[in-house]
Structure formats: structure tokens, C-alpha cells
Amino acid sequence: MPEVAAPASIARPDGWQVLKRNRSALIALGFLAGLSLIAVVVPVLLPEELKLTSSNSFVPPSAAHFLGTDVNGQDMLYRLLSGARVSLGVGLVGALISLVIGTLYGMISGYAGGRIDGVMMRTVEVLQSVPRILFIMILIAALDDYVKEWIDGWRLSAQARNWSDLAKTISDVKPYSKVLVMIVSLGLVEWLTMARIVRGQVLVLREMTFVTASRAMGQSPWGVLRRHLLPNLSTIILTYLTLTIPAVILDESFLSFLGLGIEDPAASWGSLLKDGAQVINPLESKWWLLVFPALLMSASLLALNFLGDGLRDAFDPKSGE
Question: N or C: fewer beta carbons within 10 Å in the chain?
């Protein structure tokens, strides 16, 4: 039985050309790519003494410490780049989880239609009425101890088998237990908007000729979704993924600022902002502890939003030139 061909994309055919003409989006993409590369490579190359605590607390920016040191005498450049890895990683992974859940949910809801669609969308509306930060805080409080117990269990199991390197690696993961819970929690609340967007697109696509022909030729609903609808949704999904990442980063930073996120000695932008805010006072301000994390976080979020807007203008068929 011959295959029914689907359009390559619902986006305008010159979408990439439109994106290339968007200077702010290209600059944002270059900035994010450069920051990600620097955050991965530079902390490994820095001298080991900059990564350890010392007695050189609150040293202002200087030739020895370009961004100064924190309360524990650690170099702020190392802490800032380490925090970038955590915050960007949480944003990306949390957004990917929300993308998978939201895409599947929205596709099923939009394609099924009728009562199934109505029930699924009412469920989304109920979930959106729940304060997401409160929901995440409850999940962190409820699950963090269990995650730490699992990590300790894995570490003891590795030690019992004389796998010292693996045991040390597992121990290094323990300060990130709340982050692991937070990533899952953020992914479980951020998918709601993605689901509504995907569902709206599927409602339009399912009435098109190629979908009707696929049904008439006996293709299963899952086959229609996978072979015909999902490829046509790819650019829309990519666009809104870039707009979900900053929302996840902001939530993570807010929770870390409240002390509910990553634990010392690990760092994220939120925890660095919390440390900086604690030492700001009218008499002696340690300004570099607050200014540098705030500037880098603001620039990254701005770049993500510029990139997301550029992708939306280029690939969303409802956007103007």
C-alpha cells in the first residue's frame, strides 16, 4: 500500500532564511553556545586552588581573582561557571521533560477530539489553577529524603563491591538531590502550556487532506500521529522549547534563592544570588557576589527569549514577516 506523503512542515519554507536575517536571534544563539562551551570547559582548566575553600574570603575582583572570592574563599569565576552548568542543565532537562509530556498529551487530546479532548483540557485547566511553586516545594520536601536514601544505598552498595571510584562519584551527586527532584517537578508543571499549544496545532492539522487520506487508507491513529503530525509540529515544538527553558531556569533560581534548591558546596545562579544578597549591607557591600551572577543570569534569560522570539517569527505560520 503506497505511503501518503505529508507536507514537510507547517512553517513557511523560508523560515531559516528569516532566522538568519534576525540579528538579535543570531547574537543570542552565539552567546548561549559560547556560554555553554565556556561553562563546560573552563572550570576543568582552572587551577585546583581556585576550586577549594581558603582563608581569602571576600577578596574584591583583582588579577588573582577576576571576579573576586566568596565567603568561603572560593573563586567566583569558578562558582559562576559551575552555577551556569547547573542552571542551564536544569533548564534544558526540565524543558525537555515538559516537551515530551506536553507534546504527547496535546497530540492525543487534539487528535481524539470530542469528549476525550474536553476531559483532557479540563484537567489541564485544573492543574493550571494550582500554584506551581507551591506544588514544586511540596514535592521537594516530600521526595528529597527518599532520593538521599537511594543515593546512600547506591554508595554503600558500591563500597561493598570495592568500587571506590563509583562510590566517590555517587557521593558527589548527593548535594544535587534536591536538583534531581526539582528537575522532575519542573518538568511535571511546565508541560501544561506546551500541551495547549500542540493541541491547537493538531486540531488544525487533523482536518487536512493528507491526514484524511491516511485514515482512509487504514493507518492507525498512532501511525498518523508519529508519521504525519509530529514532523509538522517539530518547528513549533522547538520554538516553544526555547521559551520554556527560561521559565524553568527562573523557577529553579527562585527556589534556590529560598534555600530549597541546590546545597553547598555545589552552586547554581539562584544559590549564588542568595549568598550575594546575604552580604549586602549599607556599611560594607560585597557587590561582586550579587552583580556578576545577576548580570550573567539576566543576559542568559534575555538571550533565550530573543532566540525563542526569533524562532517563533521564523517558523510560526501565524507570525508576520
Answer: N
* Phi and psi at residue 69, to the nearest 5°: -125, 165
**Cell triple for 222:** 498512532
Task: Assess whether pLDDT exceeds 50 at residue 9.
Answer: no
Q: Cα–Cα distance between 184 and 188 in angstroms, integer?
A: 6
Express each pLDDT in 283-309 by its tens digit: 677 888 989 999 999 999 999 989 888
Q: Which residue has the cell 499549544?
A: 197
Residue in the block written with cell 570547559: 41
N-terminal to C-terminal alpha carbon distance within the chain:
40
Nearest to residue 311, comparing CAs of 99, 84, 20?
20
Q: Are 310 and 25 spatial neighbours (Cβ–Cβ below 8 Å)?
A: yes
- Rama region for 54: left / alpha / beta (φ>0; ψ in -120 to 50; rest): beta
pLDDT per position as a tens digit, 100-119: 999 999 999 988 888 898 89
Cα dihedral 224, 190, 261, 75 sign: positive
Task: Read off the pTM.
Answer: 0.80
**214-248 b/e (C-beta count within 10 Å ≥ 16 → b):** beeeebeeeebbeebbbebbebbbebbbbbbbbbb
| CA-derived radius of gyration, the chain | 23
- If we measure between CA atoms, which residue out of 210, 191, 222 comes closest to residue 9? 210
Identity of residue 224: V
- The size of the chain, in residues, is 321
Contact 214, 223 (CB under 8 A): yes
Task: Using the structure block, give the residue that is written with the C-alpha cell 487532506.
Answer: 209
Three-state secondary structure call for residue 75:
strand
